[in-house]
Amino acid sequence: MLDILITIICIILLIFIWVMLYDSNRFVVSRYTIGSNKIKKNVRAVILADLHNKCYGKDNERLLAAIEECAPDIILVAGDILTAKPKESMDTAIHLMKTLVAKYPIYYGSGNHEHRLKLYPEKYGDMYERYEKVLAEAGITWLVNSHVTLSDYGITIYGAEIDRFYYKRFRVQDMQPDYLKNTLGQTGGDTFNILLAHNPDYFPQYVQWQADFVCAGHVHGGMVRIPFLGKGVVSPNVRLFPRYDGGIYQEGNTTMLLSRGLGMHTIPIRIFNPGELWVVDFTTE
Fold first, then answer.
1. Which of 57, 104, 130, 240 is most buried, by the most CB atoms less than 10 A from its CB?
2. What pLDDT digit, counting tens, does each position of 50-79 carry?
């Protein structure tokens, strides 16, 4: 009986190891369509989040091929394309961004890793300045608590870089009601407002701020997802079964797309949780 039990445990462990290796090195393409009478012209966006220097094939050839097949008009970045680690190479992130911007306009919102590079130069040296310079010289629009209006489409894109305080572990910190308004200004009512907000925990505040559409990441799908239930187990903030773990959320007039991300860091595993590349069609009504 004991031999049978040990055999069963070993089989289960082998299955988990195989799934971990498989899911940690693949991604799926997810699609969503949203329409609004504020939008003047249809536009297709590919949304990238949480790559963390991950490579899918040489020079990310598999990821680039998938993006090209999606035929986007623009690229939206919801943060953490690189990983904040002292002396870590940024070549993977830079190569991907430079390759993509040669074909598509890129609107880049910061994640906590980009923000961390800026906050702690004593730890990361000039990594932030070098990365910022490369993106600017490549023609990428990096939205750091700023916005840009795409008049032809009737769309305004905001990039929120919230304070490190809001990424503390174990609990969601209280955000003051006027924090986003003071940080980003108030949304315009005559355009469709897209918010690149890496942290999904503050979706209620994004709703109150009156974003029409939010692109978020950070949670990595919960790293491990429960089969059949599709529920993420743990967030990077070390909270079990986070409220927002991946997918589409709606509240009032606001929709949030929470990407499960494309990469990993610190605990480099994905189980029943492959990477995710999103394609969103913004359409007129």
1. 104
2. 999 999 999 999 999 999 999 999 999 999
* Complete edge-to-edge strand list for the sheet that includes strand 247-251: 146-150, 155-160, 192-197, 213-216, 254-258, 247-251
Distance of alpha carbon 285 from alpha carbon 271, whole angstroms: 39
Question: Rounded to an integer, what is the distance from CA 250 to the centroid of its chain?
Answer: 17
Name the burial class of residue 31, with classes exposed (0-12), middle (13-18) and buried (19+) by CB atoms within 10 angstroms of its CB. Answer: exposed
Residue 168 class from Cβ within 10 Å (0-12 exposed, 13-18 middle, 19+ buried)? exposed
pLDDT for 171? 82
* β-pair type (155-160, 74-77): unpaired
- Phi and psi at 85, nearest 5°, equal -145, 125
Q: CA-CA distance, 181 to 178, in Å (whole number)?
A: 5
CA distance linking residue 248 with residue 195, whole number of Å: 14
CB 187 within 8 A of CB 198: no
**Is 0.90 topped by the overall pTM?**
yes
Pairing of the two strands 155-160 and 247-251: unpaired
Which of 58-62, 173-177, 270-274 tops mean pLDDT? 58-62
The neighbouring-strand residues paired with 239 are none
Residue 160 has a pLDDT of 95
